[in-house]
């Protein structure tokens, strides 16, 4: 019972974090390892368990999604699902530890971009004499690469998406948060379709179901909370989450 309570609370916390700012997998993955799942199985299970929370959060945000750099939401979602499928296949073929060493540095870079991306974008616009903006093709290519990472390991991939859009498109993090949640759901759904067939995540159905329920409740509550927050406060929470997640990843490594 204490182990299941840990898994339930970790799932709820991960769902809330993913809805508000990202980094939910940092909560979910250690909890599953703590209750005895092998790291690769825990990685696959956490991805599967976070699907309902991500989908519920995306449904809450569905009326607030804006297109990115000329790329339609449908095209971006398709690219996210394709890249995630590739990443999930790599996760099954390669050890997760192969990529973990690079994650803290990627997160640190993404956090700095998220914090100063708007200023950097404006500075570049002033230097070039025209607005800085990624083409729709560049947006889709960048999203494909991030989705591969999302399907392979996935830790704080949402933070990395916000950082890319902040610099490349000059978008405020609070404005692009609904699209982040939607693409996170697409990445998790695509990876899950493969992992359910090829991984041994279903070998611990009670643990998986418990985290799944917690993540769904947390994702629903977190999305509704985020929608009611002022833009400046949501932006602050996003940066706080990004910075905290980065520090925790460095400590973990």
Can you walk me through this structure?
The chain is mainly alpha-helical. It has one domain (about 1-250). It has helices at about 1-20, 25-35, 40-50, 50-60, 75-95, 95-100, 105-130, 135-150, 155-170, 175-200, 205-230, 230-250. The longest helix has 26 residues, at about 105-130. It starts with a helix and ends with a helix.
Give descriptors for this structure.
single chain; 253 residues; mainly alpha; 12 helices; 0% strand
**Percentage of residues in DSSP E strands:** under 5%
Quaternary structure classification: single chain
Could you give the order of the helices and strands?
Answer: HHHHHHHHHHHH
Helix content: over 70%
Computed over alpha carbons, the radius of gyration is: 17 Å
Tell me the total number of β-strands.
0
Give the termini distance in whole angstroms: 30 Å
Major sheet characteristics: none
| Net shape | globular
Number of helices: 12
pLDDT < 50 runs, ≥5 residues = none
Give the overall average pLDDT.
Answer: 81
Number of domains: 1
Structural class: mainly alpha
Describe how the helices and strands are arranged.
Elements: H1 2-20, H2 24-34, H3 39-49, H4 51-60, H5 73-93, H6 97-100, H7 103-128, H8 136-152, H9 157-169, H10 173-198, H11 205-228, H12 231-252
Helix pairs in contact: 1-2, 1-4, 1-11, 2-3, 3-10, 3-11, 4-10, 4-11, 5-8, 5-10, 7-9, 7-12, 8-9, 8-10, 9-10
